[in-house]
């Protein structure tokens, strides 16, 4: 089974950083993602997708991303339910980010400029690598999924 979501869009507001009772960082934001096709009126619709980021990645996202910035999110879809203050059960769909890539430069913010050149950050406790990862042949991030002799077998 596979649960994988990849999104590219713009933040609708600054990320909100919080800490759990045991000190774990968690940030949330909404990503506005345009649909590929226009509706019957010729207008492109936009989906507003809730994103949740944990640990060190949450702190980095909170520090370097702001409203309007473009970002790519790689993660998994999570459906959860909770009971609100009125006692009603609420069902929420959100993407739990495992990686976030900053795709544009911030408006005049020096720290945001340096973040845009940073490599993609994975949601773990190890520090981010100091250089852009080598994606292999043709700069394809999925090249590791190819058969071992893929380049030799290409006939186009």
UniProtKB/TrEMBL annotation:
SUPFAM superfamilies: Nucleic acid-binding proteins. InterPro entries: NA-bd_OB-fold, Primosome_PriB/ssb, ssDNA-bd. One of its GO terms (biological process) is DNA replication. Residues 106-156 are annotated as: Disordered. Gene3D superfamilies: Nucleic acid-binding proteins (2.40.50.140). It comes from the Bacteria. GO terms for cellular component: nucleoid. Keywords: DNA-binding. Homotetramer. This is Single-stranded DNA-binding protein. It comes from Alicyclobacillus sacchari.
